[in-house]
Amino acid sequence: MSGRGRFWETDRETKSRRKREQEEWAIHGGYQQAKIQKLIDKYASEKDLEESDSCHKSKIFAGVSVFVNGYTEPSFDVLRQHLLENAGRYEHYYSLSRVTHVVATSLALSKQNFYHNKKVVLPSWITDSVQKGELLPCNKYLLLPDNTITKYFTDPSHSEVRCADDQDSSPASVYQEHPEGWGRDVMEPSAITALDTRPVPKPKMSVISGPAMVPADQPEFVGEFYGNSRLHHLSHWKTQLKDLVNDIRSDPNHQLTGRQRLLKRHNLRNMDSTHLEKITPEEKVYMHLDMDCFFASVALKSHPELAGSPVVVAHFKGNATDAHSLGSMSQIASCNYPARQAGVRNGMMMGKALSLCPQLKALPYDFEGYSHVSTLLYKTVASYTTEIEAVSCDELYIDITFLMKIMSCDQFAKELRDEVKERTGCPCSAGSGANLLLARLATRRAKPDGQFYITDDQVEGFISGQLVQDLPGVGRATNKTLQGIGIHTCADLQRLSLSYLQKELGVRNGGNLYQLCRGKDSRVLKPDQPRQSVSCDVNYGIRLKEQSQVHTLLDNISKEVARKLDNAGLAGGQVTLRVKVRSPDASVESAKFMGHGICDNLSKSSSLGSVTSSAARISIVCSTIWKGWHVMPSDLRGVGIQITKLKASQRTKNFQPTVHSYLSSATKSSSSGCRDGANITQACTVPTVVPQVPSLCDRAELSDVKSLLGDWFKSQPKAPLTKDKVYVNDYLEKLVRSHHVDTALAIFLFIDRFCQNCYNPEWQRFADELKLLLKSEVWKEYHAHIELS
C-alpha cells in the first residue's frame, strides 16, 4: 500500500488519467450522457413505484413533484419517504418542467430570484399534510409569499383556488417528459450543493453526507474531512507507525519477547547473543509482511456471519435491487477474495461492482479498528526484531537475517503469521528473499494467507515470469512504452541491452530496470525514517464562491498544519501551496458527489527567512501565492499546504512558573503602551532573567518602533507588501518568545488601531492575521489564553 496517501499527480499522470477516464466514459457516450442516463433510470424506477397502488398508503400528493433545496428539518430522506408513500414524486435535481413545489427553510436572494415562478413552501407543509391525511392548502406554508406565482394563490380574489390542488395542472402535464433532449430541464448546479442556503450543521454531522455537509469555509470542515477521509488516515497512520518504530528502536528498555520465546523453544536460551552473532548467514534475508484485504478483514471481525460472502468496504448504503445503487459512484476501498472471484476490484465503483456481483455486501469504514490492528501488527513484529521499515498501516519490511540463525525462514514465517492472526484476528501473507524486490514479489505469490521464500537457486526462474508492471518504478507511462515494443515480462526485458534501456527510459530508470528484471535490488532496509515534511491536503467537498472564503479555508488548513508541527516538535523553513483547479473542459459537477473531478494542478513553494510553526505566518504566505494565480474561487477543488526543510522546534520550556501575571513585571517603557484592549487570562511562565528586547530595523525602544511603523503605514497606503508583513510577523514572534509579551501587545494595538481606521480591507486583514499570530504564539509559549478586543 505504499504511496496510497499521495495526493498530487505529475503532469504526465494527469494526462494519462484524463485519457483513461475519457475512454471509460466513452462507452456511455461521454460523462454527461452517462449522468443523464443514470437520472433517467432513477426517475423511471421511481415512476414505476408511483404507479404501483400497492406501494402507496394514500394519494395525498398525487400530481405533486417536489424539489428540496438545502438543509431542512426533517431531512430530505424523511420528506422523500413521505412523498413516495403517498403518490408524490421527489426530484433529486431541479427541473423546470417537472417540479411543482420547492421545499426550503431559507433561501439566498439569488435563489429567491431563481424560484420566482415556483411555489416555495416550508417542509411542514408535507409533514402536516401526512398527519391530517389530506393535501393542505399551501398558502399558510409559503416561504416566499411575494414571488410571482404565490401572489396569485394569496390574492383574496383567488381565494377559492387551492395551491395544492392546482386543477389546471394535470399529472400528465406535470410529468411530461422530453425524450428528444433534456434541454428544457434546467439542472441548476448550485442546487446540487446549495452550500450558501444551509445553516451551519451541528458538529456531529458528517462531511460525507450530502445535505448535512459542512461548508468548506467553516472551521469544522477540515476536522470533518479528516474524520472521514480514508487517504488521510492512511497517510497519518504511516507517519504514526514510523514514529512507533523509531520510538521502539530508541527505547533501551524494549524487550524482544518473541525472540526470547524462540530461543527457549529451540533450546538456545543458554546461548548469548555474542555467540549467535558469530553464526553469520551467507547473505541478507528480508521479509515482506502484508495483511490480506486489510479493511475488509477488519470489517468482517464485527460481522462473522458474512464470512465466505463477497464483501467490500465503501461509503455506500444501497443494495443491488435498487436501480439507483447500480449507478453509484462510491469507490471501493477494499474487497475480500470471494468478491474478487466475481470480478470486483479495489477502486471500482459500487454501481459496476453490484452489476458484477448482485449479492455483494458493503460494510462501513472502521478507522479505529484499522488503527488498533495496525498497532498490534507492528508491536508483534517488534517483539522479534527492531529492524523494521514501515510501509503503510498493513504492510512492512523486516530484516530477518539474525533470526535465520535460530530457525529456517519458512518456520519463522509460519510462527509470525500465526501470532499475528491470533492477536489481530486477521490473516496475513509473507514473502521472503535476498532483497526487498524479491520479498515483495514473493508476497504476491504467497497470497492469500500464505508464505513463500525465494531461494538463490529459484531467483532466475521466478523473476523471468514476473510482469514488468509489477516492478517498482514502472508506472502506466513506462509500462505503455515497454508494451509498445513488445515487452511484457521480465524475460522479455532481459533481452534488451543496458544502453538501449537508458536511451529509451533515461539513464537512471533504464539502469534500475536493467537490474530489477534480473532480480537484483540495491535498496536497503530503512528502519530510521526521519520526517521530511508535514502537510495537510483536502480534495473533497470544496465548493466556494468568494475570495474571502478561500482565505478562510487557507487559514483553517494552516492551523491544522501548525497543529501537526507542534505535535511533532518541528518547525519548517519552506511553505508549498498546492491546489487543484477544475479543468476548463471539465464538468462543473464531478461524477463523484462533491469530488474534485478532472483538475489541473498548481504548485508553488516559498522559502522563509527562518523556520516557523505559526499558523498565521503560513497562512500569509499561502494567501500571497493564491492571489498570484488569479484563479476563480468557484473553480477551486483541492488545497494542500506542505511544510519542508524541517528542524526541531527551539521553544524554551524550562522556565520556572510564577504566581503573578507577566504583565505585572513589565518594564516602564513598554508598559506605557499596553492598554485595556488586551489581557492575559492565565498567569504566564516567565524566565528568571528576561532576555534583551528584539529590535525592528535596529530599533528596540517602543517609541522608535512605533515611529518606524507610522512611516511604514504612510509609504504603503493601499496594501502592505508581503515581505514587510512577514518581517513584522517575525518581529512579533521574537518578542513573545523572548518574553516581551507586553511590548508585543503594545505594538499590535498600535498596528490594529491604524488598520481599523484606514478602512482598507487589506490592512484590516493584516491586523486579523496578527491577532491570530499573537494568540497562537502566547499559547505555545506560555499555555495562556490572550483576549484581544
Question: How many E-type strands?
Answer: 18
The tally of helices reads 30
Shape summary: globular
- Biggest sheet strand order reads 9-10-5-11-12
| Secondary structure category | alpha/beta
- The Cα radius of gyration reads 32 Å
Ends distance: 50 Å
Average pLDDT reading = 76
Assess the beta-strand content as a share of residues.
5-15%
Helix content: 40-55%
- Main sheet, how many strands, which sense, barrel? 5 strands, mixed
Task: List the uncertain runs.
Answer: 1-7, 149-211, 652-690
Describe this structure in words.
The protein contains 30 helices and 18 strands. With 789 residues, the protein is α/β, with parallel strands linked by helices. It has a five-stranded mixed β-sheet with strand order 9-10-5-11-12. The protein has a four-stranded parallel β-sheet with strand order 2-1-3-4. It has a four-stranded antiparallel β-sheet with strand order 13-16-14-15. Helix 18 links the parallel strand 11 (428-433) and strand 12 (451-453).
